[in-house]
Amino acid sequence: MATPSIRMFRRLEGLFCVYKPSGVHWKLVRDTIETNLLKGLDAAPSQPLPQEVRFLAHPVSETEAPKGLALSAASVPVLSKHPLVTGPEFQHIRVGVGHRLDAFSSGVLVLAVGNGNKALNDFCRTRVTRGYTLEGEFGTATDDFSHTGRVVERSTYGHITQDKMDRVLAMLEGANQKALLMYSNVDMRSQEAYEMAVHGLLGPEGKSQPILTGLRCVHFQPPNFTLEVQCLNETQKYLRKVVHEIGLELRSTAACKGVRRTRDGPFTLQDALIHHHWTASDVIQAIRQYHSKKDQKYSHTQIKDPAFQSTEESTTTTRCNETGDEAAVGTIK
């Protein structure tokens, strides 16, 4: 029979996301969540101690028994099973971390508990795009492309306009679209490439160079500007370098003031748990909401007409039998 702690742990197994603040290492976030989850599991009500029958001796008067002792059967708790003797039921819990953020970045950080780590590995292997908000400032260049680095150059920025910024962003986005097609390892003239592009599955197989799939300026007030970026296989250092290169393309300099991840696949800022909600009960609720969203998305993709569904299934089966390798390429597992 499962104990309350074990039943609670089973509800904790899955994927969820938290909001990692800037200036905090991701390991500290993971360790804090592990500690909070262990506290929640150990605070679950414990089962009553098992009972055992023992014969207890108690003294009697000399007139009742010649030896002065009598035995009586009694049910007593088994103290060897007491939590103060055995210790907490859960002494370690594994929390896995998905696509990591460096210490100076903030935003969505996907985590997993228990068997959810298997789903996390599959999630990290899929071609999911991530969204970022980049804060930049014209006028300075630093050795690490961030505003906290050592200043190596200063320049003017009065000649930069919104139109010039948009033209540079369009040029960079076009160059990255060509790189996306090149690393996709699919014949662009094939039907397979068309279907993958329609479903948003077109992307590099495995690891590749960072690719920007979307880039636009959402705020422009020199010297400050804000970019929204959609990308694959990126690092936060690479994104800071992108801000630096944009400044160079505009015949100026620029440094990155902040990197915030707004989306990691299906996880968004609205799903992220802030520090005050890194508790077992809130994590259970977040995992439940993620599974309900996934089930709803799956149900919406199902075909409601049984006749059409059976026809499509037979067609899909025929295609898989004829070209099994080709069908496997377009499927994300």
UniProtKB/TrEMBL annotation:
Recorded GO MF terms: pseudouridine synthase activity; RNA binding
GO biological process: pseudouridine synthesis; RNA processing
Residue ranges of every copy of the Pseudouridine synthase II N-terminal domain listed in the record: 92-236
Residue ranges with Polar residues bias: 308-321
Domain of life (superkingdom): Eukaryota
Region (Disordered): 298-333
Family: Belongs to the pseudouridine synthase TruB family.
Protein name: Pseudouridine synthase II N-terminal domain-containing protein
Taxon lineage: Eukaryota, Metazoa, Chordata, Craniata, Vertebrata
